[in-house]
């Protein structure tokens, strides 16, 4: 039997589906790691099926309706931004406080600590603050990966305010400035992602900001040498 929140989700997506010409629409909450919606549809708009991140479960129906409208529009290759109300809700500190622990519990391969064998992510972030490159608040939750990534330096979540760095950069031979460059790159994506919630991050802007890093050129050469990428 569907819960009340599940019924509300179905009703909201069914209404949006009707407005966009779909005969049948199904929707359900799924415990996804990231805040997103996955969908399947048929070309003639006979039906569409949605798996919706349960992070939005319990939100006001108007917020869910805004999400549904944006998703249906995206399926039609149109851009309809999230409503101001949805953006305000998802970017709030209350959202981070409530949802971040759930997100972290769903992330695999985390040490769940900033302290590594040789380096500390908190110390790296403090150096970036001292250089005036990052905002001191809100400080992101940071963690090393348990296992090294082969190519990717790490990842971040804008909504959850989380930065994860590959334990590859915890190596004794890794210079501090390279770790700082990597942490800075992931923080930039986190920060810009919050500013353009619902849109694609401007990679050219990220590159421009990375170029301002004091040891940027040396860091880029080392990443190329190690065959790693941000």
Characteristic key phrases:
230 residues; 2 domains; three-stranded mixed beta sheet; 6 strands; alpha/beta; 8 helices; elongated; Zincin-like
Q: State the CATH topology of the largest domain.
A: Zincin-like
Query: Which value, in Å, is the CA radius of gyration?
Result: 20 Å
- β-strand amount: 5-15%
* CATH homologous group name of the largest domain: Metalloproteases ("zincins"), catalytic domain
What is the terminal-to-terminal distance?
45 Å
Instruction: Give me the strand/helix succession.
Output: HEEEHHHHEEEHHH
Mean pLDDT: 94
Question: What is the second-level CATH architecture of the largest domain?
Answer: 2-Layer Sandwich
**Overall 3D shape:** elongated
Please mark out the parts with pLDDT under 50 across 5 or more consecutive residues, or reply none: none
The CATH class designation of the largest domain is: Alpha Beta
Helix fraction by DSSP (H/I, runs of at least 4): 40-55%
Sheet bearing the most strands, described?
Answer: 3 strands, mixed
Category by helix and strand content: alpha/beta
Count of individual helical segments: 8
Number of strands: 6
Number of domains: 2
Sheet with the most strands: spatial strand order: 1-3-2
């Amino acid at each position: 039997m569907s819960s009340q929140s599940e019924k509300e989700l179905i009703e909201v997506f069914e209404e949006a589906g009707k407005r966009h010409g779909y005969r049948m629409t199904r929707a359900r909450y799924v415990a996804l790691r990231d805040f997103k919606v996955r969908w399947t549809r048929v070309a003639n708009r006979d039906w569409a099926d949605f798996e919706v991140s349960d992070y939005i479960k319990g939100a006001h129906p108007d917020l869910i309706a805004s999400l549904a409208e944006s998703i249906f529009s995206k399926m039609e290759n149109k851009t309809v931004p999230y409503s101001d109300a949805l953006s305000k809700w998802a970017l709030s500190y209350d959202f981070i406080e409530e949802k971040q622990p759930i997100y972290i519990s769903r992330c695999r391969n985390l040490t769940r600590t900033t302290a590594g064998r040789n380096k500390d992510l908190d110390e790296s972030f403090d150096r970036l603050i001292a250089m005036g490159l990052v905002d001191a608040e809100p400080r992101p939750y940071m963690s090393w990966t348990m296992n090294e990534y082969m190519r990717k330096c790490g990842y971040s979540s804008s909504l959850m305010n989380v930065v994860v760095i590959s334990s590859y950069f915890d190596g004794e031979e890794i210079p501090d400035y390279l770790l700082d460059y990597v942490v800075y790159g992931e923080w930039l994506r986190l920060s810009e992602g919050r500013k353009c919630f619902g849109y694609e991050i401007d990679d050219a802007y990220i590159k421009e900001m990375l170029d301002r890093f004091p040891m940027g050129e040396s860091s880029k050469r080392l990443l190329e040498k190690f065959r790693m990428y941000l």
